[in-house]
Amino acid sequence: MDEDGINDDDDDDFYTPYWGSMRSAEGAGNNWYPKITEPQPAGVKLLRSGDFGKARNRLGRPRNSNIYSRLRRMALQPRAVNAAADLKHNLIPNTHGTAVAAYDSNIYVAQFSPDASFYYTCGQDFWMNVYDMKTSTKRDLSSNIPDINIRQYEDGHISTMNILKSFGVMGQWCITDSHLSSDNERIIYSSMSPTVFMAHTHDTSMTQTALQFGEEDSLWRSAIWSCKFSADGKEVFAGGPGPIYVYDLIANRRSMKISRAHSEDVNSVCWADTASGNVLISGSDDGFVKVWDRRSLGTAQRPSGVLVGHTEGITYVSSKGDGRYVISNGKDQALRLWDLRKMRSGEEQGLYLKPRVLAHPKDCSVMTYRGHAVLRTLIRCYFSPVEMTGGQYLYSGSYDGRIHIWSLDGTTVQTLDRSQTLPMACDPSAPEPDESIGRPLLRTGNNKTCVRDVSWHPQEPVLMSAGWAQNSRTRSTVARHEWKGLHRGGKLEDWVEKQRLEAAEMGGGDKSLY
């Protein structure tokens, strides 16, 4: 096991991130818990509550419904509806992906900007790369120079994406977290030091501002594990080895410190909503997710409530942004959904021996989602984009090399396998190769991939994943996963044409739509 906590097998198989290799796939990890195949009552109630977009009549695994019929119904709709959300909420990325970047170090954070105008990565090599996602990455594969669109950048990584800005960053050991301001103008990043740095994303200036959260003479005791901008971009919320902090960017000073917020490292923090900025969420290796309301902290500095349910440490917390729903990933191999109105009081919190059971005896989570492996590193999880899906899906990376997507009702709606990711020689938007002919020859060969971070495009059924390759000379790759119609090998245009012909044969075709 190396310094990253990943077993690196000796592997002399030939591999390049462009052409891939011909390694055979290996088996997945153990499934420790019963698989959920039917919608769970608590999840069904959530879907029908209206808190997650338009309530769906049909629950369970989304079906590839007849797009022609849906378009026709919408055209005849007597009242205005959110057409984009109605069409897109079932369009879930369904391909194993195509590599679009490869690095010589592990990528710790990889996310779209809020408006998807750019995508950024930062890793253990202390480089921040911001890619321009407004320019097309499609290439002409008829060219005699097959790698004409592959670029090698200053830090040595290669990518088919266009760099907007690339710069070296400062810190200790590795970048533990990074976050964009809501206006996309600034980015912050933390490392195993008490200092968070802030840089600008668009201009050419390499100037960075240091935000001091702890004491310089205690680097390891004040390491920052997570940092997040407030919605208005005026504050930064951060978590360390037990304490949590808020930094006021206007006053240029730390405005809040709770020294004993948790008994162990605070691995992840987030703001509960995008409006007030009063409610803070923190998740720790002590197994608790805590809720802090700054309006009622007082001198006691106790949490407003505790979300109890995980039986091992928390790796990530993420908010829906409505001040009500939060999700968390835990080392007990569970993703849990919480309603802040159902939190336990701070007085109910107590130390306990962590049992090997499915849930804490005072579990107050609304739903639990399983099937992924939360091991070796702080695997991240998120709500699906509210604009596209109403937040009706949850998704997470996994140590087993898969991206898991669940419906709120508890069922798994999609599992994407990074061992089947295509190399950079392929076009991410092209039809998928035939499963029986093309894919075995084109697989990247990264059969042992740990997917640490994932990001769903805010307006399109596209997902990006950052994986650590455990048996390759390339340490980390980013893959682009798209939705490609009725099945992985089809195009949306082909699907719509098929529905038109079928409708015409039945005498019900509305040709005016075409």
From TrEMBL:
Among its keywords, does the record have Secreted?
no
Write out the ranges of the repeats annotated as WD: 259-302, 307-348
Q: Which UniProt keywords apply?
A: Repeat, WD repeat
Per its UniProt record, what Pfam families does this chain match?
WD40
Q: Which domain of life is it from?
A: Eukaryota
> Which InterPro entries does the protein's record reference?
DCAF, WD40/YVTN_repeat-like_dom_sf, WD40_PAC1, WD40_repeat_dom_sf, WD40_rpt
One GO cellular component this record assigns the protein to is: Cul4-RING E3 ubiquitin ligase complex
Query: Which one GO biological process term can you cite for this protein?
Result: proteasome-mediated ubiquitin-dependent protein catabolic process
**Protein name according to UniProt:** WD40-repeat-containing domain protein
- Organism in which the protein naturally occurs: Thelephora terrestris
